[in-house]
Amino acid sequence: MTGSGTRAVTGASVLRASVGAFRGRLTAASVLFGLHQAGEALVPVLVGVVIDQAVGTGDVGDLVLWLLVLGADFAMLSYSYRFGARQAWYADVHADVRLRMQIAQRLLHPRGGAEAGRLPGSLASIAVADAKRVGVVNFALPLGVAAITAVAVAAISLLTISLPLGLLILLGTPPLLWLVQLVGKPLERRSGPEQERAAQASGVAADLVTGIRVLKGIGAEASAVRQYAATSRNALGATLRATRAEAGFLGTVQLANGLFLALIALVGGRLAADGELSIGGLVAAVGLAQFLVGPLQVFGFVSARIAQGRASANRIAEVLTSEHAVGAGRDTTDDATVASALVGGVLAVRDLTHDGLDGLDLEVHSGELVGVVARDPAHAGALLRCLGREVEPESGRVELDDVPLEAYPPEVARAAVLVAAHDAHLFSGTLRDNVLAGGPASRDLEPAMAAAQADQAADSLPDGRDTEIAARGSSLSGGQRQRVALARALAADAPVLVLHDPTTAVDAVTEARIAAGLRDVRATRSTVLLTTSPALLAVTDRVLLIDGGRVTARGTHDELMADPTYRAAVTG
Question: What's the pTM value of the predicted model, to 2 decimals?
Answer without folding.
Answer: 0.70
